[in-house]
Every structure is written in C-alpha cells, then in structure tokens.
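Repro case for the chain-ordering regression, as requested:
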Amino acid sequence: MGDTSRRTVHPALKIAVGLHTLAITLWSIPQSPKVYAPLVYGGATQSELDRVPKPLPGHWILIWNDRLIRKGSPVGTYLMTTGLWQYWDMFAPNPMSNDFWVEAKVDFTSGTKSGFIPRMSQLDFFTRYRKERYRKFGERIHQDENKWAWPYWAQGIARQAFRDTGEAPLRVHLIRHWRFLLGPTKPLPPYKETEFETYEVKPEDLKP
Amino acid sequence: MKKVLGPLDRFVFEFTSPATMSLFRIFLGSIITLNLLLMAGDFQIWFTEQGWVPTEMVRKWGSSRWYYNPFMNVLDPTLMKFIYALLLLVAILYTIGLFSRVMGVLLLLGVFALQARNPIILNGGDTLTRASLFWMAFAPVGAMYSVDRLRQLKKDPGAPVQQASPWPQRLMCYQWALMYFTTAWAKGFGNLWREGTAAWYPPNLSEFTRFWLPGFLEQQPFVGIWTYGTLIIEVALGTLVFYRPWRKWVLIGGILLHAGIEYRLNIPLFAALCISGYVNFYDGEEVQAWIDRIKAKRQGRVIHEPAG
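-- result from build under test --
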C-alpha cells in the first residue's frame, strides 16, 4: 500500500463536489403538493389565492424550492443539459391504482390482428423481465396529456406489423383496458375498455 | 464549524484504499452489460427510426433546453446497431477492468446518449446508473480486481496499489441516501402511505406483479407492516446508514426491502443495482479485508484438499 498520511485533493475539486451535491439535493427535493400551485407559478387571481390552504412551515421549503430552483434556474439548466437530472418519486406520493394494459388491433385487408404490444401478464417469467420497458412505455404514453404522441406510437406499430406479417396494414386501433383498484378490502372491479386512438396508415409510414 | 467540517473533509477526501470503488466497478459494469443484453432484442423498437420512438417524437418529448443527445443524429439503423454493439463491448471491458478509466468515460458518454435517445422507457434504475457512472468516471476503478492491475503486476510484480481519494465513493453513498430519503419524503404526502395501505397497490397491478403471496399477507395488519416498514427502512437508509454501529442493520433492512420488491414486482435489475451500491458504505480497507479473507479461505481449502 502507498503512503496514507493525510493526502487530500485540490480545494477547487472540493468546491465543485460541494456545488454538485447541493444541485442534486435541491433538484431531488419533492415537489410541493399540487394544491399550492397558485403560490408556485404565479399569475393567480386573488380569489384563487384565497382558496389555497395555509402552507405548513415544512411546505414552504418545497414551495420556495419549486419557485427558485425548478423554474428555470441555473441548477435546472446544469442538470438537464448534462443529463444528470434525477427525480425520486417511486410509488409517491401514492402508488398507481390504475390497473391498465394497452392493446393494438391492426386492420389488414385480410382481417384484424392483435398481439403487437406484449401484455406482461401473459408472458413467461423471463420474457416479462426482458420486456418490462413496454409496460413502462405504455404507462407514460397512454395518458391523455401525451395524446400528441399516439400517432407516432400507431405509426411504429404499423411498421412493426408490416415487418412481421409482410402485409400492409390499413388502420391501427389503440385500446386501453383499465380499472381502478379500490383497496385491500374491496373486490377487484371488471376492466373497462376505451379505444383512444384510431390511426389511418399512410403508405409513407411503412417506408423503411 | 471546523469541528464538523474537519472530520467530514477527512471522511470524504482523505486518501484510502480504492478496493470498494474497484469492486463496485464490477457490479455496475455487470448490471449495465445485462441491461444492454436485455434490451438488445427490442433494439429496433426503442432506438431506431423504424421503431416506436422516432427522433421527431423525442424532440417533442424532451426538454426545451439544449441537452446532450448525440444519437438524435444517428438515423441509419445499421449504424445505430453498430454503436449499440460497441457500447456493449465497452461495458464488458469496463466490467473486467481493461483500460478501465477510458472505458468508464466511454460508457458514461454512451449510456447517457442511449438514455437521452429514448427517455420514455427509463426507470429509477436508469437514473441511478447515470449518477453512478458519473461519479465512477472520476474514480480509480481499475486500481484493483481488474485486468489493468494484472497487467501492472506483470510489468512490476511488487507494484503497490496506489491509494486514492474516496470522494466518488462517498458521493455515491450520498446519492443512495438522497434517493431513499427524498422518495420517503414524497411518500409522506400520499394518503395511502399515511393510512397504511400503499404497499397493497403495486403488486395488485396485473401487468406489474410477479410472484404469488398467500392471501392473508395481502390483508391487514400485514399490508400496514409492509407499508410503514418500507417508509421506516427508506428513512433509515437515508440517514442512520451513516452511523457506523447501525450501518450493517440498516443495510440488511434495505436488502430485505429490495428482496421483497424483487419477488413481488417486475422491475428488472433495480434491486441488483441498489443492493450492489451498498458496498460503497464500506471503506476500501474493509472490502479489502473481506476479499483477503475469502482468498485465504479458498487457499486453505486448496491446501487441505485430500490428494487424489
């Protein structure tokens, strides 16, 4: 072993490490509860502000952090541009209770086929492990706020269907099957079904 | 102030054995290699223009700020496949510790770029991988348990292991603690966590669940135990883990928590990454002592093995 007697690093490195640590800490602090949004984003009318409950002292830290750090601060710019951003909200503030899966039905001249989106619960242990990213993708994309992304998803499925079958698809239907879990003592409700996107496939969508 | 900062400064920066950082390199490299292999079958779907996530979609999804995303310019699927294969090779070389420092930087640039190419499929494990790679790029990860070390010993059989400042390792500990503490904090705002039923929900999502559990363990009081137990362990992993006499017990709690999540939920490699990061809470000298003990035991076994 080499010399162990009190060797240390340059002070500039210590400062850089300290600043980076501060940046990731401020960025990781949970967002303030949605009810305080008028206090964070501004532009609220007096009556909207009057309806906001008085924040607890601990909540003020989160509100100020949202105002000063998350809204276009150099901290955000540094973490986002370098790819060092981070959020730690696994199963928080509440775990998801929307039990859903998405199905793609593709119309061909010869008929309609399904099975282009892997359904986790139908897969064996290893395949499910390998394909988990499909579930994560569906979880993010199927939400209404990402409506703009549905045609891209449908186009991708059309290309995949064309590759798999060799037949040009005519239409892609994206169907959400969903139910809300009610809790440990309540029975599981049946799934409901909604077609949330119908995409007419264009010839240019299928070009390699 | 000096009383607090002095010991902290020594703990974070004073030179010590690089054994822990070198061992964590093997864990991190193996997990990244496995992750790349797991995704390889769906490579076309996730990372090419022929897939579900073309670059135009990523541009709309991503931040309005400029950010590091070089693969947005790679539109040829064959070239993208070649880059992916190269990244897999870099991950393997990093794991075995050949040209470790260079491979660490290449892996950092490659993994960041791949994640930026498709941010829609990322999970907490990917975020933790990014943070780890960043810190590890500054660490002497090839100093021990590596091909680099073997090459060094071949040239100079008595070459000592160079001591190093453990700040990347210490910051990795901080990163882990930050993850646990802030996630527990965020859960504090959820009514399901407060009322003690939150742990019931994720394993009852049909697409997320994994292995079976007897029905009575999904009822109260057990659901409450899983729920509050999760919060207690997460807070401990964010705070008490730094108190040395309790470190081992807190980390055992963390292992149990992740083992439970791994059994019940389908979250590939997340438990492996989180648990392997616990090694960073042990000093280089402690890790070196474990490995020396294992080596001595193995040598003893070889010596005592009966002939024939």
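Ordering looks correct now. The longest helix of chain B spans residues 19-40.
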